[in-house]
Amino acid sequence: MEETKDVPLDGGTEEIQITRENDIVTITLNRPEVMNAMTSKMFSDFGRACREINEDISIRAAVITGAGGNFCSGADVGGKRNEALSSSETIPLRNLRRIKESAQALHDIQHPVIAKVRGVAAGAGLNLALGCDLIYASDNARFSEVFARRGLSIDFGGSWLLPRRVGLHRAKELVFLAEMIDATEADRIGLVNRVVSDTELDAYVVDIVERVAAGPPLALSLSKALLNNASTSSMSQALEAEGSAQASNFSTEDVREAGLAWMEKRPAKFIGR
Fold first, then answer.
1. What domains are defined for the chain?
2. Whole-model pTM?
3. CA-based, 20 to 30 A from 145: which of 227, 236, 243, 270?
4. Exposed, middle or buried by CB within 10 Å (0-12, 13-18, 19+), for 11?
5. 145/174 Cα distance (integer angstroms)
6. How confident is the model at residue 96, as a pLDDT?
């Protein structure tokens, strides 16, 4: 892929690190000492990063991962550096809205988003992974909807995301029991797309992301929206939306490039317009 010169992202913060290689952006949660538990500020910074990624049409794909061998252990409810999500001295709803806004910002990213999961993905951390389009996990990954153990109900979009991933009754089991499941069980119930050995995970995700990034950006963005909206659409509404999407695709240079590439028996070079 050709290197892009358009790099509007500012590198993030110490705890929400943003890196870019050509047209692929990586967000790394970076509080390894607490398994990347997220403070209120981290949620705000994460949401801002997601909005910037969404607005940059030169980006082809994004990866979200965690530092230090874990993905994310959820919200840092008890941490001193947090703005007291559960404190009586603040308004909990105000802080919880930061969580809501960052979850929505992740969902709204028009580009494909891939979660690369090692170690613990729990609570909001698990639902952050579920908010991505694809999830690839190390064989040492562990997952839990841990909320009930903390006297809390599910959040960060989990009530919407989890049943769509594993089915309603399986979702209720995961939430009610709040058990930690291993990567094998997560794979068995369809919580993740695939489990690979820890030593192979980085290379595997690089391959997946590069293949996704080589696809037609507008068409993939439209397909993502169609799939995200499918569960709340009738068949008639879905067909109408598909027709509108295809009409947009047929007007692009990428469709013409795909036809030429097929006739010339070469890989297509999509440019996103």
1. 16-213 (3.90.226.10), 217-264 (1.10.12)
2. 0.89
3. 227
4. exposed
5. 6
6. 79
Sheet holding 181-182, edge to edge: 120-122, 142-144, 181-182
Q: Is pLDDT of 42 > 60? A: yes
Cα–Cα nearest to 189, from 126, 104, 124, 128: 126
Contact of 94 with 55, CB cutoff 8 Å: no
**Model pLDDT, residue 128:** 98
Q: Is 82 exposed, middle or buried (0-12, 13-18, 19+ CB in 10 A)?
A: buried
**CA dist., res. 111 & res. 19, Å (int):** 16
**Helix or strand run (H / E) with residue 271:** none
Pairing status of strand 142-144 against strand 120-122: parallel
Count CB-CB contacts under 10 A for residue 269. 13
> Tokens 């639902």 appear where?
127
Q: In this structure, are strands 194-196 and 134-138 parallel, antiparallel, or unpaired?
A: parallel
The tokens of 230 are what? 């499918």
